[in-house]
Specification:
Layout (H helix, E strand, L loop, with lengths): L1 H54 L3
Length: 58
């Protein structure tokens, strides 16, 4: 009976860890794509302002 309860507890811990792993991967992917979007947006803004400074209205 004791061994059965112990096994159940280990299985539960393993399930929790797997869920946390999946969630962590998801968060990581979301964070990466958000970072990529922000940096590309920044790049576009900077490029536009540089071109605006050089070729803008005189």
């Amino acid at each position: 009976l004791q061994a059965e309860a112990e096994r159940e507890r280990r299985a539960e811990a393993r399930r929790k860890k797997e869920e946390r792993g999946i969630l962590g991967d998801l968060l990581e992917q979301v964070g990466r794509s958000a970072t990529r979007q922000i940096s590309s947006q920044l790049g576009r803004t900077i490029t536009r302002s540089i071109f605006g400074a050089f070729f803008g209205k005189k």
